[in-house]
Amino acid sequence: MASPPVIDPVTIENLRALSPEDNGEFLREIIGIFLADTPLRFTELEESLAAGDTPKFTRAAHSIKGSAANLGALALGESAHTLETQSKQKPLGELSALVAAVRDEYAKAKAELEKLAQ
Exposed, middle or buried: residue 62 (CB in 10 Å: 0-12, 13-18, 19+)? Predict the structure, then answer.
């Protein structure tokens, strides 16, 4: 069974359909916001992991999950959802590998979104 695309094409087409006359400007703007904001959420994850601040960690994971879903980054959204869920069930110190997995998925999504934004 093939793995799903890094970015869901239906979600991208739905975003394009919101402003069909703007030659993709709305989509580029949304991608730009995501690419600017998500690294800040990773900083929050790292800081809250170091500080043991579970609520901040959970919020950052939730933000990544939601942003990913808005752009159709399905694997990233699923990874962030797992991270969010696990942060409510396990000590933060046990989640470093999951944070790394979310970073890996973000890198894949970022590469695809940058292509779409060109």
Answer: middle
Write down all domains in the chain, each with its CATH number in brackets: 9-15+24-117 (1.20.120.160)
CA–CA distances in Å: residue 111 to residues 58, 60, 77, 81, 108: 25, 21, 16, 21, 5
Confidence of residue 2 (pLDDT cuts 50, 70, 90): low
pLDDT above 90 covers what percent of the chain?
A: 91
**Of 40, 46, 88, residue with least CA distance to 64:** 40
d(CA 63, CA 80): 9
Indicate if the alpha-carbon torsion angle 107, 109, 34, 42 is positive or negative.
negative
Q: How far apart are CA 25 and CA 16, in angstroms?
A: 9
Residue 76 clears pLDDT 90, i.e. is over it? yes
Per residue in 43-61, pLDDT (tens digit) is 999 999 999 999 999 999 9
From residue 54, how far is each of 34, 43, 63, 86, 101 by CA, in Å? 23, 14, 14, 11, 19
